[in-house]
Every structure is written in C-alpha cells, then in structure tokens.
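User: I'm putting together a small comparison set for a docking exercise, and I want a reference complex before I start. The sequence is below, and the ligand is molybdenum atom. Could you produce the 3D structure with the ligand included, as structure tokens?
Assistant: Of course. I'll restate your input first, then give the structure tokens for the complex.
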Amino acid sequence: MKQVTAAIVKPLPDHLFIRHDGSAEMRWEAMAGLGYHTPIDRFFVRNHTSTPLIDAHTWRLRLHGPGVRCPAVYDYASLRAMPTRTIDAAIECTGNGRRFYETQQHDPTPGTPWGLGAIGVARWRGVPLAYLLRQAGIRPEAVDVVARGLDAPFEDHGHVRRPLPVAKALDDVLVAYEMNGRPLPPDHGFPARLVVPGWAGIASIKWLGDLDVTTSEAATPWNTVFYRDITVQPVKSAFELAWDSTLVAGRSYVLRGRSWSGRGHIVNVEVSFDGGVTWHQPEQRGRHLVGAWARWHVNWVPRRPGPHVLMARATDETGATQPLVTPRHPLGYDFDAVVRHPVQVVEW
Ligand SMILES: Nc1nc2c(c(=O)[nH]1)N[C@H]1C(S)=C(S)[C@@H](COP(=O)(O)O)O[C@H]1N2
Ligand SMILES: [Mo]
C-alpha cells in the first residue's frame, strides 16, 4: 500500500541514512571524498513532528511584537525581492553524538541516539534577519526574537519556537530560502527557515511563520525545558568512514575527516590509529570557514590484523579541545569527547 503520510519527504536510502523515529542521520561514509558542502540527498533531518508541505503562494511571514515599531507581513515574492546574502554554514543538532554517552561513557541519556551524523554544511541564500528587523524599526528595548515554525504542534507544547537574543539576530542570522543553489527542500524548511551560524540546530527554526520581537526575556519550552542554556556548538571531529570498516593490512589508505566548532576556526587536528597511544598530524586541505568545518586527510598503512580504534581530536581558536571523557549532560547534549571509531584490519 502506498504510504500517504511520511515524517520526512525525501528518500532515505540505507546507504546514506540511519533512521531514528521521525529523524534521519547522515552516514559519515556518505561524505567520503565529497566537497565542502553536504548534498541535500544526504543532509540529516531532525523533525519534532513531521515535514509540512507549505504552499509558497499562501505562505506569509509575520514580523511583530513590542520590540518593533512597524510590524510587517511578507510573502514569498517580497522576501525573494529583498537584498540577499549567501553563507556557507553548518547546522548541527545539539544532540549530535548523544549515543556515545552510552557506548563510550556507559552513562546513557534520553533522546535520539545520534552518532556523529546530525550535522551538515550547506550554502544558504536568503535575507539577513538584521535587514528585516531594521526595516521593521527594531527598538533599542528589543530583547529576543522568538521564531516559530508552521509544523504541527509538538506534544502539548504548541508550535516549535525558540527565542534568539537580539545581538545574535542582528549579527549573522539569515532568513534562508535557498539551500545549495535550490529552493529549500520541504524537509529543510520550505519556504523559509532561520540559519543561525555556530549555534545549536534548534535555533535554526524551519518552516518559519512568525518572528515575535519581545522587550523582555522570552520563555518557551525550547529554551526552558529543552535546549536550556544551549547556544554555541562545541568542537567535534569525524572520519568520512563507515563504522567497523574493513581495511587490508599492508595497504596504504588516505583517511579523510572533518572537524568543526561553533566558536571559531579549527587550529589543530590530531589523529590516532592505536586508540590514543600515539597521535599524528593530518594535513588540512581547502578552505575552512567559521561556522562550517575544516577538512583533513592523513595516510595510514595498517600493519597488524585485528580490531583497531581510530580517533580524531581538534582544537579551535579559543583553545577549546576535545576531551577523552566529557561531563554527562542530562539530556545528552554537547557530546564533544573524542569518538573511538572501530575498524577491522584483515590479512590480504
Ligand atoms: N519548525 C521547526 N524547526 C526546527 C525543528 C523542528 O522540528 N521544527 N527542528 C530543529 C532541530 S532540533 C534541528 S537540529 C534542526 C535540523 O535541521 P535540518 O532538519 O534541516 O537538518 O532544525 C531545527 N528547526
Ligand atoms: Mo536538534
């Protein structure tokens, strides 16, 4: 029988995604050897409920609240006619890596058991939120911009919404309507979403319907219950390699990976092939943008057959690095410890 409703609209083939209830995680081997951006066909999806199909002709974005002098309603055509900006930025779920609290630290937490694939980097095009706020006459007393999605209400908490402090809203946030040169796909927020560089994915509200500018600190379930005190994303690293890959002893491999931090540039990456006994410096290649990731590669000739543990550890320009063990977060957020990536080395 044909499925009439799906939590996610785009195809989720097993070689690109790991499925989790209503969400889909990118397999890191799906990035192997690819360029800077994550193609849409493998970009992770995190939905609280399911992807709504929104008609751009009837869609409206409302900008209002006591923090603006002239409330405004925009339609799709008027948004697309405004001054644009293009940015390359990561969106990462703050629960990315959550399953390692259990598998590495033996201290499980509730929530989607993401590996490291709840991140993607895309080229986003849209209107700077600062432009919209200034057009609407943002007041000096403005405190938060509460962004609200048009997807179905989540449990009994109402529509997904989250306050964004005005300082960040005026800095580098985009109201994006294009992803990798195409109109936003339904799963990623069509017709428009916020893109909040460096911050936890929840800030980047999809299917944007409403921007409410407050003059006092706003409280929603998404900053008081969930994602409380969560803003900038910590340092992480991943190999572009399948979990439990099989490698042949004596062969030469180029191991590729990426490291990222919401705080700034990655200034150092180290890789271990022996579970952290010795460390090697990979070569960084190409550009590395703040709010996105750095790519690196390193040669390895595995000698001894048997199980091996690969590790990658990055440091960003603020000096933040990846510990071997990270303090438990009760909801499984911000897992930034070095991930132990198992591979099997076999005789030729
Ligand atoms: N309206 C709305 N916006 C949302 C969500 C949602 O469920 N509804 N999920 C958030 C979370 S938790 C994350 S991590 C990102 C995921 O973005 P993506 O699905 O485009 O990868 O969207 C955020 N924006
Ligand atoms: Mo998320």
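The helical segments are 76-80, 99-103, 129-135, 166-169, 221-224. The mean pLDDT is 96.
User: Thanks, that's exactly what I needed.
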